[in-house]
Structure formats: structure tokens, C-alpha cells
Sequence to fold (817 residues):
Amino acid sequence: MFKIYKTIDFVKYFKRFNIISLVFILLSLGFLFFKGLNYGVDFKGGTIIELRASDEEIKIQDIRKAFLNINVGNVSVKEFGKNTDYLIKFEKKNNQNDNFIENLKKDLSKEIGSNFKFRRVENVGPKVSRELLEAGMIAIVLSLSAMLFYIWIRFEWQFSLGAIVALVHDVVITLGFFSIFQLEVNLSIVAAVLTIVGYSMNDTVVIYDRVRENLNKHSSRNIKEISNLSINETLSRTIITSFTTLLALFSIFLFGGMILKGFSLAMILGVIFGTYSSIFIANPILIFLNVSQETISKKE
Amino acid sequence: MLYFSKIKIISIYVLILVLSYFALTNFLDSNLKISNKKVNLGLDLQGGSYLLLEVDSNPIIKEKIQAKFFSLKKYFEKEQIKIKNLKVLDNSIFFETDDSNRDKFISDFTNKNENSINNYFSNYRAFEFDYLEENQNIKINYSKYGLIEIKKTTLDQALEIVRRRINETGTNEPNIAKNGNERILVELPGLDDPSRVKKLLGKTANLTFRFVSEDSQEFGIETLPFANEDRMANISKRIILTGENLVDASAGMDRQSNQTVVNFSLDRIGTKKFAKATTNGVGKRLAIILDNKIISAPVIRDSIKGGKGQISGDFNFQSATDLALLLRSGALPAPLSIIEERTVGPDLGKDSINSGKISLIIGFILVIIFMIYKYKFFGVIANLALFVNLLLLVGILTIFESTLTLPGIAGIILTVGMAVDANVLIFERVREEIKVEKNLLSAFDTGYKKAQITVLDANITTLIAATILFMFGSGPVKGFALTLGIGIISTLFSVYFFARHLTSFYVFRNKDKILFN
Fold:
């Protein structure tokens, strides 16, 4: 299945894929810049309610109408998994009142009867959401810098640069995907992005380890040949590991329930981009920076 | 790489057995186990409420500055320091003085040993108050450390009161803890409707007994609203009693009126004060005021000397019970506001556990099948390592009694997917070595050796990400970072000790066979 006997000439395709990546990155940045991310209540503040109706007669438009009548401001009502489950989101500012949820329940039962219950209520104040967003951003930046630092100790600067560009590529495109499709970004997406950072780095490091080893082993070959050789030698591992990780992630995506959907989707995208970038981004940069046998011998 | 000493083998298996035992205690009946340690389920899995409360210490700072103003005034009189225009503005005290008086004041104000007007905190090496002088104007305000000290004591007191109030409601195993300098985190497992707790925590519960004044022109009165009625009354500012004098309170029935009431009893000082006030005030109305709202204002018919009294005021049994609870547990030093609330119903929690289990089992089976398909016998070794890995992971979580959340389960599933990577790296390396190396034994040995640094590199990167996420993540996401991080450590152990030992065992027995390709 994954036995690759023939050596594939990856280097030949570098240019083509780099152009595609560049297009994707520009597209993502454009969307991130002009459309932005669809922040959930974790980062925007507001209220989220997961409602389950025990009466099948209650329809989504009834709930939407009811909430509009209760006057909680801009409200979004979506089906959530089963057809009796709904996710309701709104941003009303003065929901800090102690009786807010209780009153909401009362008002709602006047509108649609009492055959429903709140399965989950999350209410995040503006101060907390601001802090959570800050903490999330700090965490992402910090993890990128920690990776940079780690790889800087382990490798030469050309490698650090290559790995970081690959990382940023993965993070930007994953977030870009969330921006283009306006998928909700909440705390678990930050967790996913950090894990992607770790995973993408992991993949890149495995190939880089091999590049360095091959540079030492083959003193007469140039970086293009070395890079190609290293990718091919590690290809089987790259594919197997990505495959088993994706097996686990698809299992979460399909069977892990609604709450983990966004998280596992982000991870699936990240693993795919991470695998791709460790071959098609991290390596061209070594070639571009003219890494040679001298690059490593200088350090040792 | 393939040689193991006896002692090493024994310690590896003992460790695995011990951790497996802890992992299994989660699923055993309580009478079968020695240790009671268990993985805790997060609120998102068992259902419950999470509240984050913020203490507003501004009113206290204001109050304390006012008190400081009076004590400074006294000090200036006592020490005969001449000052002008002493006043309070924006939480600062201002005054004017001349050079000689100023020098005397400053030397007193910055005396580290015996200082009656400006506390010195030796633990911070700093004063409670800072002063700023400009020509002959002096401004005094709280120093950074003075503010920290106020916030700290306010938070400590508030925490104590919050704890008492929640304990009185009889919630199961609540977790109440400080969070930073001005916040209190409250976790209430199993509670799917926190509205009562929120109501109880939303009240400062400042109770005072004061006379109602019939003459609205009188000096020292204020107009306060009734709690349950739409009218106001003029209340004297002089306080007869406060909630601090209460020793007990409970809800009860008044036999004559058949109304629900709150009965209270007073301490010794309170009893005396109450007796005196009721004796002198027969015929007057005494208002019972909670958080600046009048609960009731009955007419005093007789003096009350026994230190016991009754508050009536349109209660039902629940509201009387809650008021009694608030009075028993005491007043909060400052108002609290709920800045974050997350509640998960128990049935959603159960659903989450189920879907977590299902996806773990499916993910695990898929990976196992794939590994056997791909590596045949060595796939079995990798799968055994994966299984041991899970036992170790759950065992470690149990020993530390960590909290498992839904994202935490996702972290375990992800570990299953990523853990085989280490074995894959090694097996692929061995496969390469076999091509050039005739001897199986040394092919495996070199394979393990060469793959080691890469395996470490690859895992450390994920570990770094997990650590940072653990530091900055909050709530359930922290649970993800935890299982992911521990998962990496258990992976390294299960691959480099357990699986390597199994491999070496097998390879030594089958030196002559070629297994790969």
C-alpha cells in the first residue's frame, strides 16, 4: 500500500506547489484581514445556549421568533446535531444580571411552551472574553517562538527559518479556512492551532534530521539531491504517521459529538497542511538558502 | 540498544503493573481496591456549573481612604502640625503645609519602625501609602503594595463568605478557589441550574437595624426603597445593630400571623444594644435594611431583652431560608459580580462521555488494524505498546487525581494516533538498515540507535506546544493539554522501554529469520 519503491522527484514540483501555497496564503491573509474570524462567545463575550426540545413540534423558526420577541438583540439559532437540538447565540451586553437565565427560561416558555430544556449555558463577560482572546494569542505566539528557539538550538538558522515558515504557512492557511467558511473560533480552536504547531514541527524535524544526516553522509551531492533523497527516505513514515493521526482525528470528528467538531476539523486540516508543508515548504527554503555540507560543518 | 539488564526489565514491568493497577481502579468496585484515587470528571463531562466572580474592591478603598482622612486629622492635631485644606478627592488625600511642618510630617510618614500613620510592610519592603509633594501641596494615596494588601484581604474575606454560603446550600463537593488577585472561581459539580447560588452570591448581605424617621427635614437621614413594595421611607443614618451582631438565623413560622419569618439571635453586645434601643424606642418604627433596601419596618411594641427577634416581610419559605442563610454566613466585604458562567446539564455530560468513549474505541481499533496490516508481527508489538501506553496514561492521570474533560478525551485519542509514530520511525529505520545490514540483530540495534534522536526531537516539539497550552489554556482546554502532554511521556516510555524489550526478546529468539520485506 505505502511501499514506495520508486524515488519520486519532489524537487521538480517545488516551484509549482510553492506558487499554489503562496496563492492560498494570500487568499487566507486577505480573508483574515478583510472578513476576519467568526469569534465564538469565548472571545467575543455573550451567551450561548444549547437547547433540547422534547416536543418535535417546536421548529427552528419558532425558537428564532421567540428569542427575537424576548429582545436579546442579534440572535443566531442553529440546528445542533440532532433535529431537536439547537444552538442559540446572542451578544446582549447586560446579561450579567443574576436572574438573567432564569428570566430567559420563563420568557421562552411563554413563547414556545415548556417542552424544552437548556443542556448547556455559557455566559462570558466582555472582560473575560478579552482576556481569553489575549491569552490565546499569546499562547500561539509563544509556542511559535518556543519552536523557533528549540530548532535554533538543534539546527542551523537556515533550518529554523524553513521550519518557522512552514509553521506559519500551516497556521495561516488553517485560520484562513476558518475565515473563508466563517466557522466559529473558540478556545478549542486555539488548542487545535497549538497542536498543529507541534505536529507540523514534528514532521519537519523528522525530515530535517534526515537532511542533516545525509549532508554528512554524501559529501558530493548538492542540497537539491539531498533534499529529495531525505524526503523519499522518510516518506513512508510521513505518510503512515499522518494516516494514523488522521484515523484518530476522523474518529473524533465523526463520533466525538458536536462540541469537538470544530476542534477536530481544525486538527484534520492542520495535519494535512503540516504534512504537506514539511515537504513542500520546509525543503524548498533549504534549497533557496543554499544550505550545503559547509552549513553544518561550521557549527560542529 | 537491544540489551536489557535483569533489574531494568523488572523495574519496567513493575512500573507498568503499578500504573495499570491505578488505571484499573477507575473501573473497579470500591471494595476491591486499596487506593481511592480516581480520575475526576470535568464539569463538561459530569455536568455542573462553573462561575467566575470578580470582587470589586473600589468601595473598600474609598471607605479606607475616608477612614485614613480622619486618622490623619487626629494625628495632625495631636502632633500640632499646622496644615490647611485637608480634603479627600479621587481616592487621595490632599493638604497644604509649610516647610518645617512638612519635614516633621514626612519623617513620621516614612518611619520604618514605629509608624502610627503609615504601615510598613516588611514582606514587601514598602509602605502602605505613598506621598507626593509639590511645593507645599502634599498628596497621599495608596501605594501599589497598599492596594495589593487591600485586595488580598478583601479577596480572602470574600472567599470565606462565598465558601460559607455555598456550603450552606448543601452543594456536593464544591470547588471554591482564588483566581488571581480579584477573582474567585466556583465549580459546582452536578448543579444544572445555578440560579439560586447566583442569587445568593449576588447579594452583599449588609444588614442594619435603623430607626425610621418621620421628619424628612431631620439631619442625618436618607431615603431608602422597600425591597418588596414600591415606596420609600426616611431612615436615620445612625446604625443600631449590624449583621455582625447576629449569631444565628433561621426560617420559621410566626404562630399568630401564620407568616413565614426569619428568626435571629444576637450576641451579648448585640443583645444589650437591641434591648436599649427597643426600650427607648417603643412606638417608633425600626427598619431592617439589607443592602440598602428595607425588608420591613415594624413598630416596636415592647422592649426586647432576650436577644432574640424576628424579621417578617412578605417571605415565602424559600426566600426566608435564603435570607437566613445570608445572615448566618455574614456579609461580603465588597460586591461580587459574575463575569463568566458555564453550565452543562448532566445528560449532555453523559452524552459527551459516550461519544468520547465511542470515538476512542473506533480510533483505537482503526489504528490497531492498520498497524497489523502494515507491520504484521511488529505491528502487534506496536499495538501492545499502544495499549500499555493508554494504561500508563490513565494510571498517571489517576495518581495525580487529574481532571478529565471532553477535550482531554480528544487528547487521549490524538495520542493513540500519534503514539505509533515513534514505533513507525524505528521500524522504518530498521527496514532501511536491513537493506544494507545482513545481521538482523545489528540491523535492529542500529535502527533503534539512529531513530532515537529523531523520536526525541519529534516528541519534544509536541510537548512544548502542550506545555504552553497548559499554561495559557483555561478550563476544558487545559485538560486537553494535560492528556496530550502526559501522553507524550507515556508514549516515549512504552516505545523505548516496553516495545523495545519485546522487540529484543523476539529478535534474540529469531536471529536467523528475516522478517521485513
Chain B touches chain A through 73 residues (CB under 8 Å). Chain B is about 50% helix and 20% strand. Residues 75 and 345 of chain B are 59 Å apart (CA to CA). Residues 6-46+346-509 of chain B form a domain with the Multidrug efflux transporter AcrB transmembrane fold fold (CATH 1.20.1640.10).
